[in-house]
Amino acid sequence: MKLSIENIYKFVNKEEILALHADTEKSLNQLHDKTGCGNDFLGWLNLPSSISENDIADIQTTADKLASLADFIIVIGIGGSYLGAKAVIEALSHSFDNFRTNKKHPTVMFAGQNMSEDYLHDLLETIKGKRVAAIVISKSGTTIEPAITFRLIKKYIDETYGAAAAERIVAITDKARGAMNTITKNNGYKMFVIPDDVGGRFSVLTPVGLLPVTVAGFDIKKLVQGAADMEKNTAANVPFDNNNACIYAAARNALLKKGKKVEILANFNPKLHSLAEWWKQLYGESEGKDGKGIFPASVDFTTDLHSLGQYIQDGERMLFETVLSVEQPKYRLTVPEDKENIDGLNFIAGKRINEVNKCAEQGTILAHIDGGVPNIHISIPTIDEYNVGQLIYFFEKACGISGYLLGVNPFDQPGVEAYKKNMFRLLKD
Prior knowledge:
- By secondary structure, the chain is an alpha/beta fold.
- 46% of the residues lie in helices and 13% in strands.
- The protein contains 16 helices and ten strands.
- It has helices spanning 14-18, 21-33, 47-50, 53-69, 83-92, 117-127, 144-161, 179-187, 207-215, 220-233, 244-257, 273-287, 308-314, 353-370, 385-406, 417-428, and strands at 2-4, 72-76, 107-111, 132-137, 169-173, 190-193, 262-267, 295-300, 319-326, 375-380.
- The strands form two sheets. The protein has a five-stranded mixed sheet, with helices on both faces. Strands 3-2-4-5-6 form a five-stranded parallel sheet, sandwiched between helices.
- The longest helix is centred in the last third of the chain and has 22 residues, at 385-406.
- The radius of gyration is 23 Å and the shape is globular.
- The relative contact order is 0.16.
């Protein structure tokens, strides 16, 4: 993974970045020394390097069993309990995976992330008559969105499979307490544990993310290795100038001091759409508190250049852009020549589609910088398990550092509870 902040120096000079050097390293050390706010939720920090072969083997065995029983596996969860898995699976999957008939692995479906009656009706209608299993992810078992969904899916599986229903449900929950733990033990479900010291949005590299990703047919050993290498490359003993997590955190906060309150994560590959959705939760829930924080938004280019691109280019100058770039696609496809050339595009005939896309990317960056939008650039060689694992840990580490730089606790989420109190009051009225 490569990181460049050269294109912010028109807006923030190097001295202003260097001025944050000491505070950034202090924040990094607070993470590793566990002396900062929320230090009881730092289990993710050394998680990649602590995942054992036995852990991976257990996940693989469970995934293989579910795959032998079901063609459709429903992952039930909300927030970090589904976004990370969805991000990884979407990044690594065939773009039209759900339309293929020669699939070697089950189709992973997501539910419990909303309370739309139509969505849940359509889900139940779709799985009717199909071979189905479920992975339910909830520390407490009482979060209303996944709890309602689990009731529906459990009822369907119980009624369809009778005594064999239990082998089709795997629970990922608290090791000793909570409603889901009780349900799991009462029904004899296979159980994986969500570590007490890992919050939902940092849980991709626990069974929360690893089991669904394995079920979908991907190599979690490579995913974990990418994360473990990034863990090493962003450790406390890595100097600021060589520590990409520190540089990214410092750059973001330096831009915030210049009034850039919105960060747009832009990608030029649609496979990364859900990774951006996970990133938005990670940074929004971690930094958005105490009246502080950079607002995280995302765009899919070139698609959104024909909509939000206008605002980014010409709107209020309170934003900066982080471009997530992929150097090489998996496949090769060239622009064909057309004898009539009515569209006038024969001058690019024979060029790879990726070359055209890269020119669009560079042209966009130049235009946005000229339009007053600072640009951070992150690139990976290609989209595979290893590089996605690197990105996940990189963004997690930088998020912890950045939160401490902001002066907030990046590991709690008090504001999430506000809507729940009102909702339950209204339900009881």
